[in-house]
Amino acid sequence: MRKYFLSAVFTLTSFLVFSQNEDSVMIKKISDEILTNGKAYDNLRQLTKQIGGRLAGSPQMVKAEQWGLQVMQASGADKAWLQELMVPHWVRGGKDKADALFNTAIQGSRNLLLQKKSLDVLALGNSLGTGKARLTKEILLVNSFDELEKKKDSVKDKIVFYNYKFNPTFVRTFQSYGDANGYRGSGPSRAAKYGAAAVIVRSMSHSTDNNPHTGSLRYDTTLPKIPAVAIGLQDADWLSNQLMNKKIINVSIQTNGHFLPDTIGHNVIGELTGSEFPDQVITIGGHLDSWDPGEGAHDDGAGVVQTIEVLRVMKALGYQPKHTIRFVLFANEENGLRGGAKYAEEAKTKNDKHIFAMESDAGGFTPRGFTFGGTPEQLKKVQSWIPLLYPYGVYEITNGGGGADIGPLNRNFKIPVVELAPDSQRYFDYHHARNDVFENVNKRELELGAINMAALIYLVDKYGL
Amino acid sequence: MRKYFLSAVFTLTSFLVFSQNEDSVMIKKISDEILTNGKAYDNLRQLTKQIGGRLAGSPQMVKAEQWGLQVMQASGADKAWLQELMVPHWVRGGKDKADALFNTAIQGSRNLLLQKKSLDVLALGNSLGTGKARLTKEILLVNSFDELEKKKDSVKDKIVFYNYKFNPTFVRTFQSYGDANGYRGSGPSRAAKYGAAAVIVRSMSHSTDNNPHTGSLRYDTTLPKIPAVAIGLQDADWLSNQLMNKKIINVSIQTNGHFLPDTIGHNVIGELTGSEFPDQVITIGGHLDSWDPGEGAHDDGAGVVQTIEVLRVMKALGYQPKHTIRFVLFANEENGLRGGAKYAEEAKTKNDKHIFAMESDAGGFTPRGFTFGGTPEQLKKVQSWIPLLYPYGVYEITNGGGGADIGPLNRNFKIPVVELAPDSQRYFDYHHARNDVFENVNKRELELGAINMAALIYLVDKYGL
């Protein structure tokens, strides 16, 4: 809390000496234009409903790249192009299946009835499947990595079920995600180390439904690459209740995930060329790829259409940026981050002078702030603009980095970076799940995000950092 | 913007001299309890799914009162009772219907084809219906009251179509509502003054769907009480486009709204008796009634279950309030406000010393602040607590009054009042429409509202105002 207090005091003091009338007029124009004539919502409808989920290497991703290029041009980019790169090509390979098999006593008899309950699962991204044969093994419940270590002698040939709870008491839900997502990322290999046959991971969500949430794992290449699935919360609770009651449960899993050879993908780039400093570049972006079960509406269709909306509003208002602004739809954030790496690498090779980068990859929800990565002085300067953003919902800018896709740029150029920080309460209801669809994005919340992004880009372009 | 700046500076300065550790620990306990064991969402499911829409006088309202009383008791109230009052009893009386009738030229012929297009409408609350016979008249498009005045000589015997737009450029959507809702409230009588036969009002919403949004009108009793309906936005746009193209359109309306005799209704009241000042009362509430087309989930099921959750969390944490706290589910907010009036009247008659009141009636969305009604000194004191609420999403407390149900209490006792101010972007997508249902409320957003309400009640109980 103290942190917020100090930064806020600075913000407000600097505001007093900050001539802001012209800027607040400009930002009001941005807001009025987007709230009245905004195209972000219609663009999102096209991306989600006409193209859908678009994992790197998929035919949908190819369509999305063409769509992105065309929308960049239609929105008024001075130039627009595709930046080629190689992307990993993981495919799910079919419907993921899992059944719990267990015995129930038949009333009035000594016999047992074998029961089967179908579980709602999704193979983790980058996981290798069971192949055509089902894998059927006894389940071992493990509530944490500590418990895995304690039970390590019982792990061999079992399916380890990580039932680590998404912590509901963190108000900012990305904290719960940071706390839990190691079970998805490194959980499979940590179980494989003790001989596990497969892994089931409780979904990283506190939703009230049973949709499983996928996402990438990272195999330790020195260990067997065992199959791994995410399970919906209701099924996870059922399974853990059964196991807590000392029931023996076998689970039969069939998954088909595998890698095809790396293939060609593209970052989609649009540019407004700077009027004063054409060789100094500000980058703003979101990632075009998404997981396959849903439509990638919040993750990260929202960031994509907000990025394009910032371009559109600048053209619509006749705003001529002083610096060159690049609008980038990054390839392959979800299971490789090759798009962000390629973009930063080429910028370095060509010696493009980057001065700032912004990303939107936390959903199309009502904005509350930005997270920032840079020096304390730069942070103070950005915070001094909060009063200008305040009428549009942004009231805090805190340390916290700029997002995955612009991470490599940040490392290569040591430039300040920011990421839009919308309200996070609903994000993990949809994240990497089949309900991350257009219908779950609100038009005005999406637009308010774009307004604050455009306003901050305008301020950085005008005043520098 | 300046206003925010000054109040924030005061807030933060006072924070420095404010010993707050014990309070932040208590508020964290409130938050953890609600986010972990909260019952607000389950209670809302019961109220919306088992009872549904519950207008004053309806059988559902009777059920809701019994449900409320039982939940108050189950949540640990020291006492709980029903406060009887008389409520108006308006009924919709059947399905509201409207058809647009217009001629289209038949291709290659001089003849005209009579076309019919069904419009999605809802009679306005408290409006009188057309009766069994349909009312069929020519439509007159009027985009504002100014335009009505200009066209007043053409109004006679027409159906006036108020197509006043819900302003998208106000970021805080209640501003758009304040700007537009006169067309619903007084529009019918203003048209009746010039001899209109009926009124169609563009819904007060910027949703992307076609659901009509109802709500109360207020007839001028000196003028004919003409039928009046709200129309969905897509139909409103279609209708205005036709009329702008000089088409003549008749609309045939059938509505059946009428009043039955006033009937008995109840405020539901639960109480925690104060340990130090049992005769000093803090009231917190929401309204139990709702419009009939939906389930009254955001309006105001959310406020109802948040109010009960504040009671539940105090009992769960063993918190003994110093003052008596009354948890009130008000009757008849939507079309009469008799519940709030009765509560204030009885408090005055019994000479109950009220010191503070809080309401939640702006939806179960992620909280951003509170609006306040009271003296500048009281406002400063409440604002000095913002740093304690900040971790839970509340960052501003502004002048703006305390909500309709506690208005009479405020007037009778001159006490400070507050209303929870959640994010307002989605509110008018659902307000008074058939999609104000349980599925459109997010569990954690609802809970965060209850957390901030409980925290502020705790602070007022401890420190006074």
Give a description of the structure.
The structure is a homodimer of 465-residue chains. By secondary structure, chain A is an alpha/beta fold. Chain A has 16 helices and 16 strands. Chain A folds into 2 domains: 291 residues, 3-Layer(aba) Sandwich (Aminopeptidase); 160 residues, Glucose Oxidase, domain 1 (3-Layer(bba) Sandwich), CATH 3.50.30.30. In chain A, the strands form 2 sheets. Chain A has an 8-stranded mixed sheet, sandwiched between helices. Chain A has an 8-stranded mixed sheet with strand order 3-2-9-5-6-7-8-4. In chain A, helix 3 packs across helix 10 and helix 11 runs parallel beside helix 14. Chain A is elongated. Chain A starts with a helix and ends with a helix. The interface between A and B is large, with 37 and 36 residues.
The major sheet of chain A is characterized as:
8 strands, mixed
- CATH secondary-structure class of the largest domain in chain A: Alpha Beta
Summed over residues and divided by their number, the pLDDT of chain A gives a mean of 95
Low-confidence stretches of chain A: 1-18
Give keywords.
homodimer, 465 residues, alpha/beta, Aminopeptidase, 16 strands, 37% helix, 25% strand, disordered N terminus
